[in-house]
Amino acid sequence: MILARIQETASRHPDEIAIRMKAGEQYRQYTYRDLMRGISSSARELLEQDINRGDRVALLSENRPEWMIGYLAVVSLGAVIVPLDAQLTEEEVSILLAGSEAKAVLVSAACSHKLPQGAPLRVISFDKSDGLSFSAMLKAHANAVLPPAPAPGELAAIIYTSGTTGDPKGVMLSHGNLASNCASLIKLDLIDHRDNLLCLLPLHHSYPSMACMLYPLSLGAAVTILNSLKGPDLLACMQETGVTVMLGVPQLFAGLRRAIFDEIRKKPAALRSLVELLLTLNGLLRKSVHINIGKTVFAQAHSKFGPRFRFFASGGARLEPDVHTDMSSLGFTIIEGYGLTETSPVNSFNPLSKQKAGSIGIALPGVEVKIENPDAHGQGELVVRGPNVMLGYYKKPRETAEVLRDGWFHTGDLGYRDREGYFFITGRSKEMIVLSTGKKIFPEELEKFYKKTPSIKEFCLVQGDRGLEAAVVPDFEYLRKMNLSNSRETISSELEDLARELPPYKRIMGLRIFKDSLPATRLGKLKRSAVRDMYLRGGEGAEQKVHEEDAGLFEDAVGKKFLSCLEQFSTKKKIRPEDNLELDLGLDSLSRVELVVSLEKNFGISLPDSFGSEVFTVKDAVFGIRKLLTEGAVRSDGQVRLSWSEILGQEPSDDARESVRLEAGVLGNTAKYALKALVTIIMKLYGGLTARGLENLPVKGPFIIAPNHLSLADAPAILAALPWDIATQTFSLGHVKFFSGPITSRMGKLAQVIPVDMDARLYSALQLSAYALRSGKVLLVFPEGSRSRDGGIKEFKKGVGIIAKELNIPLIPVAIQGTYEMMPTGRKFPRPGRVRVSFGRPLYPGDRDYDGIVKTLYEEVVKLM
């Protein structure tokens, strides 16, 4: 039944290319005549090898022409194909082979080692000559004909939706299921025999096996297989073979869009503005009058995909609406479908003539889709009915009964239908997060919002003890370009800034940073349960293998000396070249400065202040030092920075001193008094500010005020609580991103803010702080480094202890209460509250080390609360 249409097409186009694959510099090609001869011959040989109707035949291989021919040969004789993921482990392969009761397996050389030893399996090899050779089977019966077609209700395939060892489900698809879905796609009139489809996705999934094999071969189109996702390989293949349609997953199209827009951002400002105008114009034209000028005005981008290219097709996961919109504005056509393995797989598709970004389209011909039990907003579960719905889960009657009810397949996807019949998915019912407050969160929707943050590459919401938490993989390339080495602080700050637009229950209350990709399927869907397990373990896992080219990194003199320096700052026993200085070795911004000092001392070189922010891994740092040594970075004066005492004792540069004016003059002092008065009035009116312990403050500087940090209102609360003569002599540390503009930098000088860049110029900020204190000023420092996300108090960083110890000046512990409620993260304007600022007795460094100072300081602040 499945083969009937392919056989008919082959008779009309026997010499047209059916399948091709690039192997080295050449393409292996099969015409439709070759295809049908191969299917007929190998099917006949399978029968002679005692593979009969109903027998299970597994297929374990990377994508290749033999994969398609083997699949079609098995189903043509009425046997049941069991496609397996080539990336499964040996244990997973063994479980699925036994569970499916496979009698034989078609396997490639690359996967043959995964087969269980001694299993009663007939092994048919795509590559080797030992055992049964598939290449020999293709030629064994030159005049063979296809056996009689199986009945529509007969089982054709068992496709496992999960490769885990826990509870894999085998979806049973009949010949009628597959044939009906193929027929529905043909009615859409998307392609014909002149098309050439590029197959990039692993064929063991139902989406590519239908869209890149059964569907195009039924129409006489060509299929080009490419086992590489590298940009140059992909574009070269499209040019060489004349690809007209490329099928992929959202992750692939997001990458293409990012690459195109990265090139646009490199253009001069005037040209960039023109491009943005043209993008907007083409987007409006396509949406309103269906005119596409993008192929002309953005011809350079289109030319890379070849002269015959027509459109992209996305499936396997939800395509972000902004990816669809941007690609459409560029003049590309990208259509999105929706389906599941259980529905053979496609249920709905966006019509070529009228698409909607973010929608999964309308139901396929012959398929019914509806929203079951919609709520007041029209949202409910998507259910499907039609000849494409599976027979059930193999040997799992209970699980089958849970999803197949009254003829409808319950997808588990939640969504709604608009007035024009287009469906939209909002999330998975099983993935919906229900908070302790009863609030419901659809993670995909909120993840998309948070992924606007440029420093984030991957993001997954997790339900934690405090509410919503997040597993995050940083975009290290972006951080490197921006000279941002502290990924945790950067991402946390950006997420907090974004959250201002959201209600409190949708804000991130905790996060963990991971350097490796989050668990996902081959089609890019997050494995949420696996992410949650990884999150709860805190990222613990097997040690990474050292790349062969990095194996000797620590063997030469530079590597050995660097390792001896680094070991002083990390508790990790075995340091590896790929270790991230922050995430694996625990180096914060201060530790990086200390490492730079140690490296200068041991190598006798002068490192730039930004060195600590320009390297992310151990390998980066070693290569950077080697380069500096080669370029002759040895200090001519023989002096190096040896200690914190010497670092803080050095005078800041003229430019740095200019950013902080110790003496403001008459006009400046008048402005400072006016600012103090304004802030005091606001804090009294809105915050009901009260202060206690003012008698503990020294009469004059130098000393450090060290409070907990709850809110953006904290610094104004301290300023308002301080006596006038101390307030006007108080300088505070503020992040450079808030005080680097032409206006904000002037405001920062007025407010006596010392701008701090925790990544690139922390060294300079510390020197400026010491400079102000040596001049008898007062320094306001928040030892936590960033605001609290939940109103609690976080661990204190040792920077404040370093300054106090080396300058031998007292610390004033301060407890702030009420500002979190007055102006929590995300709120732009304060609301009425009750703020209290409590000043403790001076804490002198004495004989304590840096860590001891901040530990005692932390304890004193907690006592005051």
Provide the fold topology.
Elements lengths: L1 H11 L4 E7 L2 E6 H17 L7 E5 L4 H12 L3 E5 L5 H11 L1 E6 L14 E4 L6 E2 H6 L15 E6 L9 E5 H13 L8 E4 L6 H14 L2 E4 L5 H11 L3 E4 L1 H16 L3 H20 L5 H4 L1 H5 L7 E4 L6 H9 L4 E6 L6 E4 L12 E2 L4 E5 L7 E6 L6 E2 L3 H7 E2 L2 E10 L5 E6 L4 E2 L5 E2 L1 H8 L5 E9 L2 E8 L1 H6 L5 H12 L11 E4 L14 H10 L19 H10 L22 H15 L7 H4 L3 H13 L13 H6 L4 H5 L6 H23 L2 E3 L10 E5 L6 H8 L2 H4 L2 E6 L8 H7 L2 E4 L5 H13 L3 E3 L18 H9 L3 E7 L1 H4 L13 E4 L10 H15 L1
Parallel strand pairs: 1-11, 3-4, 3-5, 5-6, 6-7, 10-11, 10-12, 12-13, 13-14, 26-27, 28-34, 29-32, 29-33, 30-31, 30-32
Antiparallel strand pairs: 1-2, 8-9, 9-19, 14-15, 15-16, 17-18, 18-21, 20-21, 21-22, 23-24, 25-26, 33-34
Rg for CA atoms = 33 Å
The class by helix and strand makeup works out as alpha/beta
Indicate the overall shape: elongated
- Alpha plus pi helix count: 32
Largest sheet: 9 strands, mixed
Task: Name the CATH superfamily classification of the largest domain.
Answer: ANL, N-terminal domain
Main sheet strand line-up: 2-1-11-10-12-13-14-15-16
CATH class (first level) name of the largest domain: Alpha Beta
Helix fraction?
A: 25-40%
Notes on the protein architecture:
The protein has 865 residues and is an alpha/beta fold. The chain has five domains: 224 residues, Rossmann fold, CATH 3.40.50.12780; 180 residues, Rossmann fold (3-Layer(aba) Sandwich), CATH 3.40.50.12780; 105 residues, ANL, C-terminal domain (GMP Synthetase, Chain A, domain 3); 95 residues, Orthogonal Bundle (Non-ribosomal Peptide Synthetase Peptidyl Carrier Protein, Chain A); 211 residues, Glycerol-3-phosphate (1)-acyltransferase (3-Layer(aba) Sandwich), CATH 3.40.1130. 38% of the residues lie in helices and 19% in strands. It is built from 32 helices and 34 strands. The strands form seven sheets. Strands 2-1-11-10-12-13-14-15-16 form a nine-stranded mixed β-sheet, with helices on both faces. A seven-stranded mixed β-sheet has the order 28-34-33-29-32-30-31, with helices on both faces. Helix 30 packs across helix 32. The protein is elongated. The termini are far apart. About 2% of the residues have low confidence.
